Amino acid sequence: xxxxxxxxxxxxxxxxxxxxxxxxxxxxxxxxxxxxxxxxxxxxxxxxxxxxxxxxxxxxxxxxxxxxxxxxxxxxxxxxxxxxxxxxxxxxxxxxxxxxxxxxxxxxxxxxxxxxxxxxxxxxxxxxxxxxxxxxxxxxxxxxxxxxxxxxxxxxxxxxxxxxxxxxxxxxxxxxxxxxxxxxxxxxxxxxxxxxxxxxxxxxxxxxxxxxxxxxxxxxxxxxxxxxxxxxxxxxxxxxxxxxxxxxxxxxxxxxxxxxxxxxxxxxxxxxxxxxxxxxxxxxxxxxxxxxxxxxxxxxxxxxxxxxxxxxxxxxxxxxxxxxxxxxxxxxxxxxxxxxxxxxxxxxxxxxxxxxxxxxxxxxxxxxxxxxxxxxxxxxxxxxxxxxxxxxxxxxxxxxxxxxxxxxxxxxxxxxxxxxxxxxxxxxxxxxxxx
Length: 435
Prior knowledge:
alpha/beta
């Protein structure tokens, strides 16, 4: 699951911004709404939109737009001096809810200046992100291992570090070509004109990332937003405490803090505060319940939204397949990251004639992966919190335990577990298991 390009600017000097970005400060904030803090997950992608126009390409040299008139200072560093809140904001961090409005104003001011339209600026930021990943590889891996109770780095390297590094290399290699105007077919009625697709940044993007893949699902959407020429407010999940602290401490040292601001302190109330404001795109990864709240808040401003939510993810097992291979693949995909993966197998629909054989094969594969005592295996992660551990343990009553069924709340451990005789109308089948 990799991100798509959010929007890319043409490879020319900054042009006049769309009318949507000429709104006044009063038009950019809205009324409050309530929210509950997100505790779930999914994978990451971005949206693409473009405007096809029957017109020749612009001249190669276009003057940048003047800043939008405002009662606030138009300085590139508008942060007030002499107070701790302002000092943290000047370093690219939000440390309390009172700073959200000022951060919002700064990001829009920077976008209107045309600073992020430059392809050179985008590449500088992407290369800075790559430098962050390279110079802090060991700390990144250890932070994820600590938050998710992993005793071996292989899962982190595969799902967090390598995927993000590959994404960065891909965008750095193609950002310039992806951002160029694209000539397209011109309808007969409009000829002899020429038609082009211009890829312009949306503006200021709000990204809210989850805790289950805390590096991947924060940085990959950020890569797309930066490459497309947007300013970004990145809210990282405080439930992955070590990764959150690392992001807040290190990312501002590498990135342009006037255009990219990080928030990692707030919980549900901070999410509520953030979605009060108008953004040009909202990218949310998390649970369906919080996704609904985010979507409703964005709808007040007609803000486009990317929601990456959870699901039940069934797997169908029939009597024509290699049961050993199927069981091995299901066990690997389900128990990777202790089952805290939005695209992991949630339940299996099995043909009766191979039902018992498939359960037996799952037992064999789980033992092969994690040994007689998975709790002692260095290959098996832990649940993010004691609350989620208790939630998962409560689900055992909805079926017969065929494998596992062991929990240790203090250690945030839930053994690899398979339940049989589960009814389709049971509570277990009403929502994503996520563990």
